[in-house]
Structure formats: C-alpha cells, structure tokens
Amino acid sequence: MKVTVVGAGAVGATCADNIARKELAHELVLLDIKEGLAEGKAQDMQQTAQLLGFDTKITGSTADYSKTAGSDVVVITSGIPRKPGMTREELIGTNAGIVKAVAENILKYSPDAIIIVISNPMDTMTYLALQSTGLAKNKIIGMGGTLDSSRFRYQLSQHLGCSASDLNAIVIGGHGDTTMIPLIKHATWNSIPVSKLLSEEQQQQIVADTMVGGATLTKLIGTSAWYAPGAAGAMLVEAILRDEKKLQTCCVYLDGEYGQKDICLGVPVVIGRNGWEKIVEIELSEEEKAAFAKSADAVRNMNDVLKTL
Ligand SMILES: NC(=O)c1ccc[n+]([C@@H]2O[C@H](COP(=O)([O-])OP(=O)(O)OC[C@H]3O[C@@H](n4cnc5c(N)ncnc54)[C@H](O)[C@@H]3O)[C@@H](O)[C@H]2O)c1
Ligand SMILES: O=C(O)C[C@H](O)C(=O)O
C-alpha cells in the first residue's frame, strides 16, 4: 500500500508520523512546495524506524508529483493555517488555489486514490476537491468530524471524570467555530445518556467549548493544532487501508441525505476500502435539524465564494 501526504508542515508531518508508526503503508511519500522540507522531514522520520520498530519506506519530494504515482490514499494538508483571532473561513482565498492545484496534480498520477482533505476551510475545500477532480463522491473525504468528536469526548471526559474511550459522542455539520453541532443529547457514557449525568448548564458549556476547540488551541499556540488533527487523519487512512468499516463523522457529498443536496458536510459515514461507503442517517430532533440546515447555509455561502476567486 502507498500513501502520500501533501503538505509537510505541522499537520502533514504528524499525520505521516502516525501512518509510519502504525505501519499502515509500505511506502509513504511526503510532498511539499517548500524546497527540501519534505525530504528533510522524511529522512528524519525514517531515522526513527529502528528506534520505533517500523519498516515503512518514507520519501520526501519537493513538488515532484511523479513520486506520488500509484498512491492508494492521499492526504491533503497543504495550505496556510489560521492565526489567533482568525476564522478558518478567512483562509479560503489562499487555500482554494493550493487545494485545487494539488488535487489536480494528484489525480494525474494516482487516478484511483482516495483523497482525504484536511486543509481549511475544510468543508469547502472538500467540495472543491470533488469538483476539480471529478472523482466518484465516495473517494473524497473531508476530515473534521473525527477531530471535533474527539475534542467533544475530551470535554465530556473532563466534566464526567471518566475515560474518553468510554464515551460515545459525535459532532456533525460544518467544521467551523459556529457551524459544528456537538450532538450532546445523543452522547452516552457506556450507554448511559450524559444528559442524565450533567446539568443543562454543564451540557451547554461542553458544547460551547467543543465548538471553539480549534480556536482555543490556536490562541494558546499561536498557530492551529496538529497532534490531534494529524492523528485523526491517520485514523481515517487506517480505516480505509484496513477496510475497517469504521463509523466516523466525515465531510462527504450529500445528495438528499439529511435534507441537503450539492454540498459536502459532516455526517456519520462508514469508512472502508472504497472510501466512504455509506451515510448513516440518525434521527435528529427538530432543534438539531434546524442547526444542521443553518450549518449547511453557512457552508453553502462559503462554497459560493469559490465562484468569485
Ligand atoms: N480539517 C481539520 O480538522 C484541520 C486541523 C488542523 C489543521 N487544518 C488545516 O490544515 C492546513 C495545514 O495546517 P498546518 O498547521 O500543517 O500548516 P503548516 O503551515 O505547518 O503546513 C502547511 C504546509 O503546506 C505547504 N504548502 C503550501 N502550499 C503548497 C502546495 N501548493 N503544495 C504543497 N505543499 C504546500 C507549506 O509549505 C507548509 O509546509 C491548514 O489549512 C489548517 O487550517 C485542518
Ligand atoms: O482550528 C483550526 O484552524 C485548525 C483546525 O481546523 C482545528 O480544528 O484544529
């Protein structure tokens, strides 16, 4: 199996590191536009092989897409991250051009690849990647819900004083500070609804803190996060290559599901060797349905911005 990670910055390198440590691929290619960066990080990572005990062959490339030929999965992380005080949406002007060019180059050398889009604003970048490659919809997966759901479980675990692994909780909708929807009324702690264990006020706090999870880290670090984003990207690569049929919230093309059409948005999907294989429709309350429709409106407005660039 061969995996390419485009963008050897914070998220791309972390994602690649996780892929190598888990030996998900025989061949791993890191590609970046910045001269020497991908080659350097690939070599550094390869030098951990004996220390960590993996056999993956890691190579780096400065924008030479021929090195990525025949990839089974490609992860796109190229683009600028936000700075404190910015929204993800403000990155569209720079990142749309980068993601479009990268997706087209990937397609030339790996026409059968499944593409995972991480660059922000992720929902719109996923839509753009789908449009510019013309690939089958199941082959384009935006990573956001996996990360946001992990942050949601973190927040819940802090309030409940429990292991995050014992929690079942997902975030649907857009991957934006105001567009994501942590489904707190569906969240359980080993089958016990968390709404029975937490006050209404605590629940609201958890939802609010989850929604600004990325912004909070950006303020602390000075740039956006990478450990959890990189690990979340690698988890999706693993689910694809090992055909795990894992249920994850990912940004995928909706064609009527959840009442939406012609948009990529976060919903629960089954991830396996064919990319996203099935959308799972869960029953939403009227309030959750309204939040989903509002999230879709906001993402659709961002998608419209693409036409003006
Ligand atoms: N979807 C998510 O959940 C999520 C999570 C974290 C970060 N992100 C996004 O991921 C992106 C990367 O974040 P980061 O922290 O790794 O940034 P970074 O600046 O550390 O790395 C980005 C890399 O992309 C490279 N790059 C730029 N243009 C390129 C091109 N045309 N071809 C190849 N490489 C190119 C840069 O040289 C840089 O090394 C940002 O847009 C960020 O907002 C998304
Ligand atoms: O917060 C960001 O801008 C990066 C990413 O989308 C995240 O959620 O960590």
UniProtKB/TrEMBL annotation:
Annotated Lactate/malate dehydrogenase C-terminal domain residues: 146-301
A matching Pfam family: Ldh_1_N
Positions of the catalytic residues: H175
Protein's GO biological process: lactate metabolic process; tricarboxylic acid cycle
Domain Lactate/malate dehydrogenase N-terminal per the UniProt entry, residue ranges: 1-142
This enzyme's EC code(s): 1.1.1.37
Residues reported to bind NAD(+): G7, A8, G9, A10, V11, G12, D32, N95, I118, S119, N120
Matches recorded under InterPro entries: L-lactate/malate_DH, Lactate/malate_DH_C, Lactate/malate_DH_N, Lactate_DH/Glyco_Ohase_4_C, Malate_DH_type3, NAD(P)-bd_dom_sf
Residues where substrate binds: R82, R88, N120, R151
GO molecular function, a single term: L-lactate dehydrogenase (NAD+) activity
Catalysed reaction equations from the record: (S)-malate + NAD(+) = oxaloacetate + NADH + H(+)
Keywords for the protein's UniProt record, in alphabetical order: NAD, Oxidoreductase, Tricarboxylic acid cycle
Sequence similarity: Belongs to the LDH/MDH superfamily. MDH type 3 family.
Purpose: Catalyzes the reversible oxidation of malate to oxaloacetate.
Designated name of the protein: Malate dehydrogenase
Organism encoding this protein: Phnomibacter ginsenosidimutans
Gene: mdh
